[in-house]
Write a structure and sequence with these properties.
By secondary structure, this protein is of the alpha/beta class. It folds into two domains: about 170 residues, 2-Layer Sandwich (Nucleotidyltransferase, domain 5), CATH 3.30.420; about 180 residues, ATPase, nucleotide binding domain (Nucleotidyltransferase, domain 5). About 35% of the residues lie in helices and about 20% in strands. The protein has twelve helices and twelve strands. The strands form two sheets. Strands 1, 2, 3, 4, 5, 6 and 12 form a seven-stranded mixed beta sheet that branches. Strand 10, helix 11 and strand 11 form a beta-alpha-beta unit. Helix 2 packs parallel to helix 3 and helix 10 packs across helix 11. The mean pLDDT is about 95. Its EC number is 2.7.1.170.
Length: about 375
């Protein structure tokens, strides 16, 4: 019988709303128990520093460079993640010694796989030292270094979840964070996946600039607005949407294109929000012809699952397939990515593949990640 590990996953996504923390018990293949989860939200000044680091990263040519504001942001990210772990353990009465490993994604500040360049800030060794728990981090780099897209990473966890679920196949698991990505699952083979286009990033940035809000809360502005169908069609003309998978995106990949083609800055807030929401739904639907088959079931997770306007638009565009929020099938829509990095950490320790030709375009299934143990402390673990 395979050993079961108790793992914590940490995810700070492209939406930059905070740090998701989740605990699971897994052997790296199946999930035997879902533990608690929590969100450690970022303060406005913390988001501002992260956004400054993303802007500064445009000029990076070496993924290990940490000049100026990027180094400052990395120190902040590491300290905030350590605090989130300690707070999570205290809140749930969990003994740190009972945790085998932390899966640490860090914060993506640059993702250019075509240049074999991806950068996630966050010091894995410092996090291990601060928490006293082994850490697996830097999970994208190996894949990108050999020509893979380095994203998405979560599909192998989606497969584990879908295999526990009774739903008509094929199943598409749709994660809508700052960028949206889809995992296609039909049978027991390797998962198939790609980024589909913008997720919440464009909507969030628009609401921040025009309404001083971090998001379109409950899709309210979008629900009251009118969609500019011409703008949606012009955005869909971008060559990315005709590009065959695997394919992946940087958070800001569509910022200038949408600004030019949709001209939402000239719209009133409600119409801009409605149009950007429709763009997200349309770009997701555009991937269906590129899938091996049309999915019969769509399960939506990530922040987009809590936007009723986006969910309505998805149901309209993906019909006759069913579209359900992850919470409705017994998953945690908000915690799935954090859970996934706990799962990936265990797979990494076991040397199991985390990326596949059908998910990132890498030549063969491969593992990834760097395991570090806390310095100066004895950790009674057998990996």
């Amino acid at each position: 019988m395979l050993r079961t590990y108790r793992a914590i996953g940490l995810m700070s996504g492209t939406s930059m709303d905070g740090i998701d923390v989740a605990a699971i018990e897994t052997d790296g293949e199946t999930v035997s128990r879902f533990g608690p989860s929590a969100l450690h939200p970022y303060a406005e000044n913390e988001v501002a520093l992260l956004r400054a680091a993303v802007d500064a990263a445009v000029g990076l040519t070496d993924r290990k460079q940490r000049p100026g504001v990027i180094g400052q942001a990395e120190r902040m990210v590491t300290a905030l993640h350590a605090g989130a772990v300690r707070g999570f353990l205290d809140a749930h009465g969990i003994d740190p010694a009972s945790i085998d490993v932390i899966g640490f994604h860090g914060q993506t500040i640059l993702h250019r796989p075509e240049a074999r360049l991806t950068a996630q800030i966050g010091d894995g060794q410092a996090l291990a030292d601060e928490t006293g728990i082994p850490v697996v981090y830097d999970l994208r780099a190996e894949d990108v270094a050999v020509g893979g897209q380095g994203a998405p990473l979560v599909p192998v966890y989606h497969r584990a979840l879908v295999n526990m679920l009774d739903r008509p196949r094929p199943v598409a698991v749709l994660n809508i964070g700052g960028v949206a990505n889809v995992t296609f699952i039909d049978g027991a083979g390797d998962p198939w996946a790609c980024d589909t286009g913008p997720g919440n990033a464009l909507i969030d940035d628009f609401m921040r600039a025009r309404a001083g809000a971090s998001r379109d809360e409950n899709g309210g502005a979008g629900a009251r607005g009118k969609v500019d169908d011409g703008a949606v069609a012009r955005v869909l003309a971008h060559p990315f949407f005709a590009l065959k998978p695997p394919k992946s995106l940087d958070r800001n990949a569509f910022r200038e294109w949408v600004a030019e083609q949709a001209a939402v800055s000239e719209m009133k807030v409600e119409d801009g929000a409605a149009t950007l929401t429709a763009i997200t739904a349309a770009t997701i639907a555009a991937v269906v012809p590129q899938l091996p088959k049309a999915p019969r079931t769509w399960i939506v997770c990530g922040g987009g699952a809590s936007n009723p306007t986006l969910m309505r638009m998805l149901r309209e565009r993906l019909s006759p397939a069913s579209v359900e929020a992850a919470d409705a099938v017994g998953w945690s829509a908000d915690a799935i990515e954090a859970q996934a990095f706990a799962y990936l950490a265990v797979r990494s320790m076991r040397g199991l593949p985390i990326t596949f030709p059908t998910t990132t375009g890498v030549a063969a299934p491969m593992t990834g990640g760097v395991l570090v143990e806390p310095r100066g402390r004895k950790v009674k673990k057998s990996f």
